[in-house]
Design brief:
- By secondary structure, the protein is an all-alpha fold.
- The chain has 13 helices and no strands.
- Helix 10 runs antiparallel to helix 11 (243-263).
Length: 313
């Protein structure tokens, strides 16, 4: 009985209710297309009851950023009028609900322990990566028909890209972006913590997840992740005058680069090929995003307010 009372007090003190638990489920299953919508749908229903329940006055506070996101989300509904692929359209809207709208919607009027939500997200991303790495080891030791097993064979055998995440059904590029968003949260915590061992552990975590991201060949996420980490670490450590940690970061960066060049040749070559294609600009033979945007800009100018739609493109 005392244990139950203590648990109830703990949940009330930390503002953890059923809606918050559903929100934890949303952030932990972002990349799982079949499971995440269940949490999203449940969250929508329960939040509706909480918000409009007559016996509880909800202190609903919003800001400009919230309403801008609402307007951005509303454009998706308008966009459904211009597409024939309704399944993909609904999938896009669902992802924006889970990743942007509902976490913010809940945070502006109820969540006080947003830090717990962000930590849970970081732990969930790390848990997925750890599961994928263990699954890769299992496939290598128990599924490989080549002997003897050694380190070089492991790295030549190791799957990359979408094959790396086959344990769970998830989009390879989306998970790459979620890893990068996890690094944003880690870097924010790193900028505030004063414990040296915590800073070093966080740097090792970033290095480990970045090497995993490199193997996924999610090119845009890899490039953005590299820029984010290099610029943020330089700014944070120099501003805090942690020059010893900065030197450790440089050594860790060099070691990670050497490891990638020696053992992750396929991933590195794909990234360098993409960079070379981007340098060619419009002369590139590949469908790079730069070429896509160059072709799209004239279409956008024709009808920049409500769009054109794929039926007329």
């Amino acid at each position: 009985m005392q244990l139950k009372t203590y648990a109830t007090q703990f949940l009330q003190k930390n503002n953890i209710d059923f809606v918050f638990i559903l929100l934890l489920g949303v952030v932990a299953t972002f990349t799982l297309d079949k499971i995440n919508p269940i949490f999203i749908f449940s969250l929508m229903i329960v939040q509706g009851f909480v918000l409009f329940r007559p016996d509880e006055k909800v202190n609903f506070k919003t800001n400009t950023y919230f309403w801008l996101l609402m307007a951005l989300y509303g454009l998706n509904i308008v966009g459904m009028l211009y597409t024939d692929n309704y399944s993909k359209g609904f999938n896009t809207i669902t992802r924006q609900i889970s990743f942007v709208l509902f976490p913010l919607f809940y945070s502006v009027y109820r969540v006080k322990n947003i830090g717990l939500l962000l930590k849970f997200y970081v732990i969930a991303v790390f848990g997925f990566i750890l599961a994928f790495e263990l699954h890769t080891l299992y496939r290598f030791f128990y599924k490989s028909d080549i002997f003897p097993l050694d380190l070089e064979l492991f790295f030549s055998y190791r799957y990359t890209g979408a094959e790396l995440t086959k344990l769970f059904e998830m989009h390879n590029a989306y998970f790459g972006m979620y890893i990068m968003f996890s690094h944003v949260i880690i870097l924010d915590y790193l900028s505030r913590t004063k414990k040296y061992y915590a800073i070093i552990l966080l740097l090792l975590l970033i290095a480990f997840q970045s090497l995993f991201l490199l193997q996924m060949v999610a090119k845009t996420a890899i490039i953005l992740n590299a820029l984010l980490i290099l610029c943020s670490l330089a700014y944070i450590l120099i501003k805090r005058k942690l020059f010893a940690i900065l030197a450790f970061s440089v050594v860790l960066l060099v070691a990670s680069g050497w490891f990638a060049s020696q053992h992750l040749n396929l991933s590195v070559s794909r990234i360098t090929d993409r960079m070379m294609e981007l340098q060619k600009g419009d002369g590139s033979q590949e469908e790079t995003r730069a070429r896509m945007w160059s072709a799209a800009i004239p279409v956008i100018k024709e009808n920049y307010l409500i769009g054109t739609g794929n039926r007329r493109c």
